Amino acid sequence: MKVIIVENYDEASVEASKIMLAAIKANPSIHLGLATGTTPVGLYKEMVKDFKENGTSYKDVKSFNLDEYSGLPKTHDQSYYYFMIENLFKHLDINLDNVHIQESQGNIEENCKKYNELLETEGVDLQLLGIGSNGHIGFNEPGTSFDAVTREIALHDSTVADNARLFFDGDLDAVPKKALTQGIKNIMNAKEIVLLASGTNKAKAVKGMIEGEITTDLPASVLQNHPNVTVILDKEAASLLK
Ligand code: PGA
Q1: Contacts of 19 (CB under 8 A, 6+ apart)
Q2: Which tens digit of pLDDT belongs to each residue from 123-139?
């Protein structure tokens, strides 16, 4: 695991954008694994800025998102599809036919099966990750088997609370309690992984991920087994590291 520690969130976003943009320039038909949440917003702003200033093209890029809330239509302003459109895709020249996210309505089991087949056939070159304060990656909560693939899961109370604080206008009842997520096995299949973390509320999970034992109690610790992971941290997220 390569660990990069920078001063603050903005610097972490710039650092991540350097890796992302270099990879896209090296392979214009790259398959990106993308993430939602507060963490990647700064990175996505950097990518949009680069597109406006330098015109790096996404027309042949394919994207595969990590997760989506159960039952929310893509048009819902708290759905992750909507988040991706608003924060990234609508500002780029990406072809929306190349944008993939779990379909969270209808036959969930069938949709998850199709998503796993899609990931299997297409493969992800560069996967972006955040980390939950409880150490989750995607929505793979503590206790998840490392063999898990895309499926519907129940969100832990701490994740629902984290999400209510940041989204859904703080309304705990409005946060969906289930989501569809790529499994740890899908994530580990990516050729390269970049994990971004910022803030003191991530420090404990970050320490466990990097210095702790590899355990399903802290899903992100599985990344120690991956051959090509870069972790980008701000000082606060890195504050408990030795
Ligand atoms: P956050 O979520 O970026 O909103 O902190 C990260 C995650 O839960 O993976």
Answers
A1: 126, 194, 230
A2: 999 999 999 999 999 99
CA dihedral sign, ordered 39, 20, 191, 67? positive
Supply 192's token pair.
Answer: 């390269």
CB of 131 closer than 6 angstroms to any ligand 1 atom: yes
pLDDT tens readout for residues 174-208: 999 999 999 999 999 999 999 999 999 999 999 99
- Which helix (H) or strand (E) segment holds residue 47: the answer is helix 41-54
User: Whole-angstrom Cα distance, residue 223 to residue 211?
Assistant: 11
User: What are the structure tokens assigned to 49, written together?
Assistant: 């800025």
What ligand 1 atom has the least distance to the C-alpha of 129? 9
* Ligand 1 atom closest to residue 39's alpha carbon, by position in its atom list: 3
pLDDT class of 55 with cuts at 50, 70, 90: very high
Q: Is 183 in the pocket of ligand 1 (CB under 6 A)?
A: no
Residue 160 vs residues 34, 78, 166: alpha-carbon distances, Å: 21, 13, 10
Instruction: Concatenate the DSSP letters of all residues of 14-26 into one string.
Output: HHHHHHHHHHHHH
Q: What are the residues whose beta carbons fall under 8 Å from the beta carbon of 87, sequence distance 6 or more?
A: 40, 41, 44, 45
Q: How far apart are CA 12 and CA 17, in angstroms?
A: 9
Tokens of 50: 């680069």
**pTM for the full model?**
0.97
For the Cβ of 42 lying below 6 angstroms from any atom of ligand 1, the answer is no
